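ok trying this again, last paste got cut off
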Amino acid sequence: MTDTATAPDDVDATRLKRSVSGRLLFLFILGDVLGAGVYALVGELAGEAGGMVWVPLLVALGMALLTAASYAELVTKYPRAGGSAVYAQRAFGRPVVSFLVGYCMLAAGVTSAAGLSLAFTGDYLGVFLDVPAVPAALVFLALVAALNARGIQESLRANVVMTTIELSGLVLVVVLGAVVLGRGDGDVSRLTELPEGTGVAAATLGGALVAFYSFVGFETSANLAEEVRDVRRTYPRALFGALLTAGVVYLLVGIVAPAVVAPADLQASSGPLLEVVRVAGGVPLEVFSVVALVAVANGALLTMIMASRLAYGMAEEGLLPSVFGRVLPGRRTPIVAIVVTTVVAMVLTTTGSLVDLASTVVLLLLLVFLSTNVAVLVLRRDRVEQPHFRAWTPLPVLAAATCVGLLTQQEAKHFLLAGVLLAVGLVLYAVARFASRRPSRS
């Protein structure tokens, strides 16, 4: 059944085009959740939880599904680009709060893209080409921007290919691990081992903090709300389906890896899944360099799609200058938002060091999730005519508590860096508001 409330967008050349099918949305979310981090995540988890890698992964999946329920309700209730910033504006009625929520997402997305560009041009690319990292990263970001500007369908079709490769690499790890165990090698008893001096509760909490980050990415799909066909029916299915698919893959990898390779060896390796391939034999290690490059490229593309659509949505809400809402004629993609977010990512890339900033970005995302989970409860008083997904009330409450719990595990220096970033954001907000109030010259 056609959504008559949004159908005019398909013929309005000033609006985004509704061209994203349920299948493309599912693959978008799956590709963004799987990301590039999983290829190193198992080693970090092994350091926290030993062979019980699968336990924090399972807990983290549950945490992600809690917040996903809030997004499913709000996206289907208010199917507009802008995501969490729009929800904060509707719930709290204070533009500055909405701006800061959106700004947190922008800071996270653009910085993540900058980090991914450096990751793309690092050791994995070095296997094939000997090029300076930063100049190559700038070229990489320019190519991502060009694909983003060409159109959402073209971008998501590229995502289909890259997600398939990325997922195939993880499935290959699971299959190779099963082969190793089938021939009598490996040790399944490691799956219940913990690091020396660490209890189950501590290992689960510490591991879940790391594992939760591997599920981050599903929230970016909220910024495609205006481009999804039949969003109220399609979005919840794609969101939960993608999270559950990623969770199953993660759990299988989390079971196979420590059973095949000792947890201490996984922890010591910067490419823990390569250790599984090495033990299994029969597959060139270079194959995984290609898979990792594809995974990184996919993550960067999806992140920049999110950032540009978020900037567009914030402009539509009056939180950024209206120029960010301009679309490219013919292609109807948010061209100004794409250019600006890409330039900012390029500037961050030239610093060449984003470790502490990346950790601060994770903190900022938790603040965004906390805002969204509270917003879904506040907005229950706002009735809409269209039917939409409704989360069971205890779910957003538990989700908000989860965000607070994870925030308490962050280091003080990251709170300090987040405070600095938010202060910069407030300055930008004040400048934007001043510019929007100036009388136009005819």
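PB: full thing came through this time. Residues 1-12 have pLDDT under 50 and may be disordered.
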